[in-house]
Amino acid sequence: MLNQYLPPSHIQIIEQVADWQSAVKISAEPLLQEGLIEPRYVEHIFAAHNEIGPYYVIAPQIAMPHSRPENGALAQALSLVVIKQGIDFGSENDPVKLVLMLTAKDNHSHIEMLSAVAELFSDEENIEKIIQSSSVAEISDILATY
After folding, report:
1. How many domains does the chain have?
2. How far is CA 143 from CA 11, 95, 117, 129, in A?
3. CA distance 65 to 130
4. CATH code at 29?
5. Most Cβ neighbours (<10 Å): which of 3, 30, 132, 142?
6. Using CA atoms, how far apart are residues 138 and 5, in angstroms rounded to an integer?
7. Residue 82 belongs to what domain range?
């Protein structure tokens, strides 16, 4: 199920990143390239972060940047960036090592996808396996069971 929304082309492994803004931009790249979001989608994430803080840092080591469908979401999809050294988003759950960008074209169709994400991340072992993965193929194998 998750591989349907998070294909290998949407997964990146990087050693480090300069700041949280760069992490969000990198996570958006595959979605922008495939026409799944508009550039303004990322701008809305930045604006919301600046207004209310890192609302999308959902758990230790995990950020799920997202915005509302009307803010430039064109499809239902995910992208993942694994940041080996982690980056601070200004959250109590810093440092973030997994940036999972979510986009959904409406307020309802992504519920099943989110359920699979929640199941995956409910197991700390899965989180560590993904962080320790050295290849996109390893991560795809983990995702294949969800």
Report:
1. 1
2. 11, 23, 9, 11
3. 18
4. 3.40.930.10
5. 30
6. 17
7. 2-143
| Cβ pair 61, 97 in contact under 8 A | yes
Of 10, 44, 49, 66, which residue is the catalytic one?
A: 66
Residue pLDDT tens, the chain, 146 long: 899 999 999 999 999 999 999 999 999 999 999 999 999 999 999 999 999 999 999 999 999 999 999 999 999 999 999 999 999 999 999 999 999 999 999 888 778 888 999 999 999 999 999 999 999 999 999 999 89
66 is catalytic: yes
Q: How long is the chain?
A: 146
Separation CA 114–CA 53 (nearest Å): 22
**CA atoms of 9 and 136, how far apart (whole Å):** 9
Residue 143 · residue 32 · CB < 8 Å:
no
* Number of C-beta neighbours around residue 102 at 10 A: 21
Q: Quickly tell me which residue has 């899965």 as its tokens.
A: 126
